[in-house]
């Protein structure tokens, strides 16, 4: 059972802004109701501009959270778009390696970069939820499906299996204090969709937000992202992907199909589609371009024997489960579940 939880802003400093204060208040209250002692790391609430301009302080917070033996879990505040800038402060002199202790690390979106950093150092992490996006949900309670997985993680330190949510929710358009206590619009959810290949496949899961993975190989967003990610060898080598299951999900920018195709093609050039055991895809936010994405992925993979399962409740669409990286997983589209087994059982 987790007792001390640290909140870090490794990408965006949104939780330090006045416009988010009502959400942060809700989130801290909820964590305390779970019996958790909430530790805001020193720079987590410094605001968007400060956090953006001080990657070294973001890195310091992460190092401190890993070094502190009393902290059992690190929860990312939110995603963003420039977490790669922490690389020199965490890897130039093996800073992260020296600070690393085994503990729960949870985040998604641009936090994909942190997951790859920690994978590089051999730490298994958890993908799929964040403080602001999930714990701070403005309805009277957390979204029930989301809460189920968060509760399992803080109580057991693991996720045993995931199953589809019965519903999915439209994204909010009003994040003001006036929206506190209002419910999201819900729709029936289809469940896991087998696009091709065997309905049952296995491997350790790794991946994350497609746009973030694309930025590792493309300078459109930041001029130095490619060179920095190359220097610190952020993207795992092809042999590391052998037998793994690739997780892909798209962000709130909801990329048009042409860009989605380009991003998938960029990943394909790494050769990982030749060695992975399958692909699982998160539901796109508001299901925008969902049909196009499924079609494009099948076309670009161009191997009907590679299993692809779509519509997993992970990533930027709500509600969200939590997927453990680096542990043995069995995807079973027939039984509509993904099960996980841990070596230390």
UniProtKB/TrEMBL annotation:
Similarity field: Belongs to the peptidase S66 family.
UniProt keyword annotations, A-Z: Hydrolase
Location of the LD-carboxypeptidase N-terminal domain: 5-128
The keyword Nucleus is assigned to this record: no
Domain LD-carboxypeptidase C-terminal residues, every copy: 202-329
Keyword Hydrolase carried by entry: yes
InterPro entries referenced in this protein's UniProt entry, alphabetically: Carboxypeptidase_A_C_sf (IPR027461), Class_I_gatase-like (IPR029062), LdcA_N (IPR027478), Peptidase_S66_N (IPR040449), Peptidase_S66C (IPR040921), S66_fam (IPR003507)
GO MF annotations, alphabetized: hydrolase activity
Protein name, per record: LD-carboxypeptidase
Organism (species): Gallintestinimicrobium propionicum
């Amino acid at each position: 059972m987790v007792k001390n939880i640290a909140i870090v802003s490794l990408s965006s400093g949104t939780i330090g802004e006045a416009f988010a204060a009502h959400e942060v208040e809700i989130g801290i209250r909820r964590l305390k109701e779970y019996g958790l002692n909430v530790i805001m790391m020193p720079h987590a609430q410094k605001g968007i501009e400060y956090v953006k301009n001080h990657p070294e302080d973001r890195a310091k917070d992460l190092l401190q959270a890993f070094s502190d033996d009393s902290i059992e879990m690190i929860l990312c505040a939110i995603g963003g778009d420039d977490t790669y800038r922490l690389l020199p402060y965490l890897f130039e002199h093996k800073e992260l390696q020296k600070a690393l202790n085994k503990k729960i690390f949870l985040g998604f979106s641009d936090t994909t970069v942190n997951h790859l950093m920690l994978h590089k150092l051999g730490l298994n992490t958890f993908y799929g939820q964040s403080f602001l996006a999930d714990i701070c949900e403005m309805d009277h309670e957390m979204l029930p499906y989301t809460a189920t997985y968060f509760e399992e993680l803080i109580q057991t330190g693991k996720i045993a299996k995931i199953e589809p949510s019965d519903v999915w929710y439209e994204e909010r358009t009003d994040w003001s204090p006036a929206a506190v206590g209002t419910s999201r619009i819900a729709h029936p959810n289809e469940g896991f969709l087998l696009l091709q290949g065997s309905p049952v496949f296995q491997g350790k899961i790794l991946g994350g937000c497609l746009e973030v993975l694309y930025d590792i190989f493309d300078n459109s967003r930041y001029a130095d992202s490619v060179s920095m990610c190359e220097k610190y060898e952020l993207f795992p080598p092809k042999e590391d992907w052998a037998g793994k299951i690739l997780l892909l999900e798209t962000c709130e920018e909801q990329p048009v199909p042409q860009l989605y195709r380009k991003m998938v093609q960029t990943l394909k050039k790494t050769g990982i589609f030749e060695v992975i055991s399958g692909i699982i895809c998160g539901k796109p936010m508001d299901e925008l371009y969902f049909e196009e994405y499924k079609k494009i992925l099948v076309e670009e993979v161009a191997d009907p024997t590679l299993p692809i399962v779509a519509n997993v409740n992970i990533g930027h669409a709500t509600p969200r489960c939590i997927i453990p990286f680096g542990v043995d997983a069995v995807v079973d589209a027939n039984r509509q579940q993904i099960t996980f087994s841990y070596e230390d059982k």
